[in-house]
Design goal:
With 150 residues, this protein is mainly alpha-helical. It has one domain. It is 79% helix and 8% strand. A two-stranded antiparallel ribbon has the order 1-2. 23% of the residues are buried.
Length: 150
């Protein structure tokens, strides 16, 4: 027996924007926590900015795998396309920061090095993610009807 299931255009649009939205939020929280930690830290607890800024990025790095996988095989090909490029950006930048982040941090050191590494990630990812969110919002999304086997 087959049943029809409708995926609304607004649902497909939101799924296309979801990875980018959460990435922007996680990086913004992390950068804000870094700056707030610098304001609150004394010389005795100089590691506070690092401790405050790292968890949002690390939690999203783990959770993003599940979000990416859940949207990767969406029936709407445009949704999967937006998700694919959001993942390429995020994982590409985070992976390259593993390689170049330590030398940058080693050259500058301390808060400035951490600010430079995280600022580099934010400067690369956030503008593109916001642009993709905007592009997906402007695109015409049609309802999709699927026949599913019961």
């Amino acid at each position: 027996m087959k049943a029809k299931r409708v995926i609304s255009g607004s649902s497909a649009r939101f799924a296309a924007q979801l990875f980018n939205i959460i990435t922007v939020v996680a990086l913004t929280i992390s950068l804000t926590a870094l700056l707030l930690g610098k304001l609150l830290a004394s010389h005795k607890i100089g590691f506070l900015p690092f401790v405050l800024s790292l968890p949002p990025v690390m939690i999203w790095l783990g959770a993003s795998i599940f979000v990416y996988a859940s949207i990767a095989h969406h029936p709407n090909p445009r949704t999967a396309h937006y998700n694919k490029w959001a993942g390429y950006r995020f994982y590409g930048v985070m992976g390259s920061l593993v390689v170049i982040g330590q030398p940058i941090y080693g050259l500058v050191g301390g808060f400035g090095g951490l600010m430079l590494v995280l600022g580099l990630a934010v400067a690369i990812i956030v503008p593109w993610a916001l642009f993709d969110i905007w592009r997906a919002a402007r695109e015409k999304w049609q309802d999709l009807t699927l026949e599913v086997e019961l």
